[in-house]
Amino acid sequence: MKIKPVKGRPMLHWVGKRPIDIISNYPAQLVDTYNVENPEKEPTYDKFKDGPNLLFHGDNKEILSTLLVQGFRGKIDLIYIDPPFDSGADYVRKVALRGEQNNLEAEGHSVIEQTQYTDIWANDNYLQFMYARLILMYELLSDKGSIYLHCNHEKSHYLKVLMDEVFEKDLFQNEIIWYYKNASRGKKRLAHAHETIFWYTKSPDKYIFNRDEILVPFESRMTEWRYNKGGQAGNDMPKGKTPDDVIILPSLNTMDGERSDFPTQKPETLVERIIKASSNEDSIILDYFAGSGTTAAVAEKLGRRWIAADINKGAIQTTIKRLQKLPDMQHGIAHYRVNNYDASTHLERRDIVIKKYGVQTERQEAFFDGTLDGTLVKIIDLTKPLAPLDIQVIKDELENRPEESRNITVFCYGINRSIQAELKAENRRRAVNKIFVRDIGSEGITTFEPAAADVNFERKGNSVKITIADYISPTILARMDIDRTIFDEQIADFRSQIDCVLIDTDYTGEHFKIVESDVPKKKEDFVDGEYMVSLPRPDARVAIKIIDMLGEETVVTG
What contacts 436, CB < 8 A, 6 or more positions away? Predict the structure, then answer.
């Protein structure tokens, strides 16, 4: 699929600057659902209109490309993004075991630091990262659409110029200042006490702006919370006056249960004002730096359709847990992976490779799997690394095809460097039938190894009693710097490792349908660990998904 050239003239230059002119399709893999019947294996715009809201795990550039290919071009009314600020910091979430845990003896500790994302960039890489995504966003926006880009002083000047280039300067509407009570002290400069939100639109006059929608809610909140306590002037707003471009709001209201311990989380009130101002009830909202899921949660509460995405697995899990707590979910959630797949069998991975790379399959071909860019394609067993024997089998087949002049593309999952070096040397000697190897693991297709869980299933008629007898995460042990013996001695309950539990009462193996969930309300609470659930029929297959405190997922069926 082709992309239209950038509208504005080039205004900013950097090493490696390149626009996007052609996009590729990255197939989506359905992972799990919540309150959804008969979900689509791959989401399309036509199915989205009457289907669930969408949550994607993967690189957002590839997710945006997938949305364009699947019919969402010109269909998004509002994009709000809170991207990395190039702050030069690692954003870390402190993860504690559940229950009342004291510091462990020996070398262990019960609080684990987990990096959510790294915000350290070379300047040129950051600019290209944002430039490519802004181009794709422009294509997705409808004629009545708006984009709000949240940033701070680190890169706001660069981002403003980038947006002028992609959207044109005439489509700039406001520079919105979010002012919060500063807490910075000690440095020899003024305290940082605001962030910036740039508002651009797709068209000069067709864009949605619901002025009346934001007058009363915004005014009432500003009246309830004023800055007089800090010696600042109040910010009362007369009725009927259009709100100005300065929002005075605490960084996060910790009193109403919003806080999810996700770094850089934004308050719902801030996002609510944006959604009310620039979308209608039938609008689609997109946030592809989902973080803790604030945009999705607010859109859900306001009855808007939404699409959210994040490359961080912890962000996806935080978002799902947060949304499950909402009382009324109209459309449910379908969670997909894009180019970051969980595949345990060769056939599952083979199907992903064919879709991802656009391999043209040939039914009459007995040995090779298809063709790609004029080469013959061989997909070897993707559940193990490439071995010399795999290459020899291909060579033997070519010996039986003396008229074959095409080169060969081999897809594998893992490769020994010595094999790669031997093939390069051999290809230099060959005039035809050169063999080129592509390692799908190094190109973003990964799998996840589960922790060990001991789960018992006791069936009786149309019900089953599920008991988690034991659980251990090698990843948690390693991050705590503690061995299993010391852990068992000092941690009284294995459930301290478990963040939440999800249950599917009719598991097909294709995706996980969340029917029951156990998400403790407080950090010190344990999951129950014992569940009695009803089945749709006596022979239904039941599955339990255990998600530990580091986000590792383990699925057990019975």
Answer: 375, 407, 408, 409, 410, 423, 427
